[in-house]
Amino acid sequence: MEIFPALLSVITDPSLLFAIVLAAAVGMVVGATPGLTASAAIAMLLPITFYMSPLFALAFLYVIGKSGRYGGSIAAILFNTPGTAASAATQIDGYPLARAGQAGKAMKVATISSVIGDLMGDILLVVGVGFIAAIALKLGPPETFAIYFAAFVVIGSVIGSSIVKGLASALMGILIAMVGLDPISSEERYTFGSFDLSNGIGLVPLMIGVFVLGEVFAQLETRRKATGETKQNKSTEDGNSLTWEEYKPCLPHAFRGGFIGAGIGVLPGLGSAIAAFISYGEGKRRAKNPEKWGKGALEGVAAPEAANNAVSGPSMAPLLTLGIPGSTIGAILLGVFLIHGIQVGPTLFLTDKELVYKLFACGMLGIVAYGLIGYFGATQVARIILKIPTNVLYPLIFLTAFVAAYSARGSMFDVTVMTCAGFAGWLMRKYDFNVAAFVISFVLAKGAEETFRQSLLMSDGGALIFVERPIALAFLVIGAGAIAFRVRGIMKERKIAKGALEDA
Amino acid sequence: MRAYAEGLVLALISIVAIWGAWQVPAASPGDTWAGIVPFSASIALLFLSGLLLLGAVRQPAGDTGQEQDNGATLQIIGLFIIALIYQQSFRWFGYLLPTAIAAPVVLYFFGVRSWIGLAVAVVLCPLIFHLIFFVLLGVYPPYGEVFDLLSWIQG
User: Fold this and answer.
1) How many residue pairs bridge chain A and chain B with CB atoms within 8 Å of each other?
2) Chain B residues within an 8 Å CB radius of A404
3) What ipTM score was computed for the predicted complex, to two decimals?
4) Contact A197/A180 with Cβ under 8 angstroms?
5) B71: nearest CB among A216, A224, A398
6) Pick from A40, A401, A405, B56: most CB atoms within 10 A?
7) 3-state secondary structure of A459
């Protein structure tokens, strides 16, 4: 019930409302611009939040993340270029609709479904997060470490094309986090005698480097390969309006997608792309008109869009209750909490409960804001994006990355870290390593180390403590199971591909 | 070839990480060793690099992976070198002068060929970034040890 006073408090604060509407518009433009991600925008804006109040900063970035997920559908439908990985599923039916002169109709279905999915996710988050936090308060260091371990393994092995490279990325993130003074004994680790390194690697410069500068390097590469120019598909007069009769068959797909997205969102690392494709596949399987899917079915837009956006709210649950970010945006938001001295974890609901519920309220209002802007102005947003000269945009982002990295702590060493992280981020993308696993593991490593060493002290150095406690054991099994499940899936895919080759 | 290179680079990183973890002094009685997590992580990384190398050995001959675009790679390395020089020059010349030089160079890199546009960037980029970050947000600008344009302008 805490959400109602929080909603009232946010609605009566004009500066917060302005921030929410601005963030909704910014996120939509960023999400819709191919090659520009919400993570990059949030990482770039992170240092500015040093100068804002915690709620203002968190709400601004959280709504950009939400709106950015939705914005990807604009590019997918109107330009046939998914703005985000998740909107690739929307593109399957969205683009044929746009080619048939029904771009406006498809956009409206995407907007309504996104709003339904996102609101469902947020409501489930508000209802469930308190229970998870109450359970999390009862967990000891061995259980918490086992959860961290499962998160590392799931994030490393599930995202991306290679399990080995995913896990290696996660391990590299852990090793980079170990640079500096040991928080328990104050012994130096990987400092090589450097005073700057003894302070450790900062989260903000690392994120700006990997997500912003790394993206600029990647775009320079993409620009060489890209041919032709992006054109917007226009709607006919009839194709712009959406009637209730047309949306009615989409409604069950939107609700189902909402539940699928919310369920997947709670699990760290799986992300919205997986949710969108599962929802699309499930929707097609249950559809009355499966033959139309892929050729321009409105239901084929509703199902993935609802799931894609429903991930947003529940993905905050592991972050807020356990301090485990489930996505890159979650990892950046964790940075904002830390910058403002707020300890994330089960105790957050004892110390800063009001802030958390106000943040949820801002998220809900953000959904309404991007829903209204998208429903009435998605095509105008598309026009703005077509006018953005990318050959000017990326150099400006390049320059912003340096000054943003410096602004965080006024440290030149941070700028050097950001530059190196940018190049490393590009290399990781180029060689199919997992950037998300790298960053999330970097964020999680210190907490995991602390709980691991506390557990060893509890058991006088014996590692059996993780096996003797049933909850800890269950999470270790989940981690091992995730790898086994993924290996089985990859082997199955290879068998099918081999069979297809032999048939050919 | 690419798979071998990936495995070898990863193995090299993990060996350096093992060596680094080994330098951490032993724990005092009743405490845990500060190097336990870095050491375990680097051993796991070495194991994964072994798996990558094993995969490279098993890869059928002639399967060289994706086609390389050397031109793009060279351009990115060029931009990275510019980035390194740009960030280092903050220490020598403060923020304004390096940004006034870097802005047109990076715009040219991204294909802007309008001389007027590049000339405008020389003035506007440092000015706008300075106003946003160092005036509005109140961040203290980096001071140039050799020459600082901001100090010179402010007299």
Assistant:
1) 162
2) 133
3) 0.92
4) yes
5) A224
6) A405
7) coil
Q: What region, left, alpha or beta, does residue B141 occupy, with left being phi > 0 and alpha being psi -120 to 50 degrees? A: beta
Rounding to the nearest 10 degrees, give the CA dihedral for residues A84, A89, A92, A93: -110
pLDDT in tens, A112-141: 999 999 999 999 988 888 788 778 777 888
Which among A426, A428, A419 has a CA at the least distance from the CA of A399?
A419
Q: Where are the domains of chain A?
A: 3-229+239-503
Calculate the CA dihedral of residues A486, A487, A489, A491 and round it to 10 degrees. Answer: 160
Q: Which residue carries 């209802």 as its tokens?
A: A127
Is residue A459 exposed (0-12), middle (13-18) or buried (19+ Cβ within 10 Å)? middle
Closest to B129 (Cβ–Cβ): which among A48, A391, A399? A399
Q: Is A423:A217 a contact under the CB 8 Å cutoff?
A: yes
- Domain boundary assignment for chain B: 2-58, 71-153
**Is A187 close to B25, i.e. CB distance below 8 A?**
yes
Alpha-carbon distance A504 to A376, whole Å?
49
Helix, strand or coil, per DSSP, at residue B26: coil
A363-376 pLDDT, tens digit each: 999 999 999 998 88
Structure tokens at A24: 């909704």
